[in-house]
Design a protein that fits this description.
475 residues; alpha+beta; Nuclear Transport Factor 2, Chain: A; Aminoglycoside 3'-phosphotransferase, Chain: A, domain 2; binds adenosine-5'-diphosphate; binds the ligand O=P(O)(O)O[C@H]1O[C@H](CO)[C@@H](O[C@H]2O[C@H](CO)[C@@H](O)[C@H](O)[C@H]2O)[C@H](O)[C@H]1O; glycogen metabolism; Mak_N_cap; nucleotide-binding; carbohydrate metabolism; transferase
């Protein structure tokens, strides 16, 4: 089979079985009916062949476009065996991200700013690259696929696509333009066209080789505390509160920088009503998936109702949108925020909308709670461990808010002489009612996320909801 279109059509028949096993595939909750190739671009001809595909995946009630990079060889070497997808016409086709020869080609295309068919490989202004390095998949639990090139670059290939702007790329660009020091510099992009509109396919960034994920640091600290016989969180060697304080400062600074770059505005009662309704709708959807949430529903509804009838105004701006300890990296110079894409489950068009910065604060507060309680997920009856986990969570949540409040208190006016949004917010704990509702909303999202992806962790957000609905708006 030599014709590329025939090869791709035959390959597409093998994709319904392969897609659900991929970590980044967002539709694992229902069977894949069919996969239809929308665009095929030959990036490298011969043996190996490198194909860029945009396919439409059809499931019960949805059709969504995904990006695939496919390698094809006459003979599949042993080290690529695990990446095999199908062998249309006897020619093995596989996930190209695992083939160093093919990933090197992507970096070269970026370095040379190539145009191939409708694909544009471009560098940000003033950037030049050292090509030649081979990329390897980062191997993280991801919604997308990232390739790391030596100690220098990381290329994120977005998997589920939507035409129009990319929140991740645009927010990185805006933050870099105002000199934000809490992000990895954006270096380049890959764009194409989908349904007649531009679409962002990839983002190249500076790779922070010395970085440690916040989640790894926080859970190590929890582990050390839980292993101690009788020390408290502030006495244990691996105390995290200093880092949590610095992280609060970093998040507030990124909010101030996003405001400086893209501005803020006041959201009125109608938008708050809409936000409250959105929270209530999500609760109803998740209740259908996870009936165990039922006993807490009345108290959660009450909290969301209170948002629905708030009179405002509440200040909104561009935010991170899915902030948690897995989205922050600690380098020797301080904390960085990564992945400004918003919640993976949200429709892509909705992810660029402005929100209250308290949404990110709520995400991070949830994450401290997660870090503490996931460690004892299989020992729910151990009161001593539960008390200690709670102590760790409270101490670090509070240090994070202190850090945020310190930056908010000293925030300089924006270009227009106006105070930035974070100065209007001040200490996040002043907004207990809204923050509580945002935390509950995030926990509801997490319940759906865990139910679909990691059922063994479902009890973590469920237990948080139980605590939150008993304790109320308490930090
Ligand atoms: N600039 C970077 N430097 C070092 N590691 C990074 C960088 N960006 C991302 N990572 C690592 O890659 C992982 C996945 O990146 P992320 O942007 O969160 O992808 P996804 O959108 O697929 O969730 C992160 O958890 C982090 O460990
Ligand atoms: O990093 P992603 O953008 O893919 O975010 C999704 O996956 C996260 C898990 O990897 C999930 O985060 C939840 O688990 C984290 C620990 O693994 C915890 O730190 C977070 O607080 C918790 O929300 C995230 O919600 C989801 O969108």
């Amino acid at each position: 089979m030599h014709d590329t279109q025939d090869l791709v059509r035959a390959l597409a028949d093998g994709l319904p079985a392969w897609l659900p096993a991929q970590r980044w595939f967002a539709g694992k909750d229902r069977p894949v009916r069919s996969v239809r190739p929308l665009h095929t671009t030959v990036l490298l001809d011969g043996d190996p062949l490198l194909l860029h595909l945009v396919v439409e995946v059809e499931q019960q009630d949805r059709r969504e476009p995904y990006q695939l990079l496919i390698g094809c060889r006459e003979q599949l070497p042993e080290h690529l065996g695990a990446s095999w997808i199908a062998s249309p016409g006897g020619r093995p086709c596989y996930e190209a991200g695992t083939d160093p020869e093919l990933t090197a080609h992507l970096l070269t295309a970026l370095a040379e700013q190539r145009h191939v068919g409708e694909l544009r490989f471009a560098l940000e202004d003033g950037v030049s690259l050292r090509a030649g390095a081979r990329g390897r998949p980062i191997g993280a639990e991801q919604s997308n696929t990232s390739l790391v090139y030596g100690h220098d670059y990381i290329l994120k290939l977005f998997r589920r696509l939507a035409p129009g702007p990319s929140a991740d790329l645009d927010r990185h660009r805006a933050l870099h333009a105002v000199g934000c020091t809490h992000i990895a510099q954006p270096l380049g992009s890959i764009t194409g066209r989908l349904h007649g509109q531009p679409v962002v396919l990839g983002m190249l960034q500076e790779f922070m080789a010395d970085a440690v994920e916040g989640w790894a640091m926080a859970t190590t600290s929890v582990r050390d505390l839980l292993a101690e016989g009788d020390l408290h969180a502030d006495e244990a060697g691996g105390d995290f509160a200093g880092e949590a304080h610095r992280l609060g400062r970093a998040v507030a600074t990124v909010h101030a920088d996003l405001d400086r770059a893209l501005g803020h505005r006041q959201a009125g009662a109608d938008e708050l009503a809409e936000a409250g309704e959105r929270m209530l709708r999500r609760l109803d959807e998740v209740l259908l998936q996870v009936p165990a949430l039922g006993p807490y529903a009345p108290a959660i509804r009450e909290a969301f109702e209170r948002v629905r009838v708030m009179t405002g105004p509440v200040v909104v701006q561009q935010v991170h949108g899915d902030l948690h300890l897995g989205q922050v990296l600690r380098t020797v110079h301080g904390w960085l925020l990564i992945d400004f894409e918003g919640e993976p489950a949200a429709p892509i068009a909705k992810r660029v909308l402005p929100h209250t910065p308290l949404r990110d604060v709520a995400g991070m507060l949830r994450s401290f709670d997660y870090a503490a309680h996931q460690m004892i997920v299989d020992q729910p009856a151990n009161k001593q461990l539960t008390v200690r986990a709670l102590e760790w969570s409270r101490r670090n949540r509070s240090a994070f808010c202190d850090g945020y409040a310190a930056v908010a208190a000293g925030a300089a006016p924006t270009g227009a002489g106006e105070p930035p949004a974070i100065a209007l917010i001040g200490d996040p704990r002043r907004h207990a009612r809204l923050l509580h509702a945002l935390e509950l909303d995030k926990a509801i999202y997490e319940i759906a996320y865990e139910n679909a992806n990691r059922p063994e962790w479902l009890s973590v957000p469920l237990a948080s909801v139980a605590r939150m609905t008993t304790e109320g708006e308490h930090l």
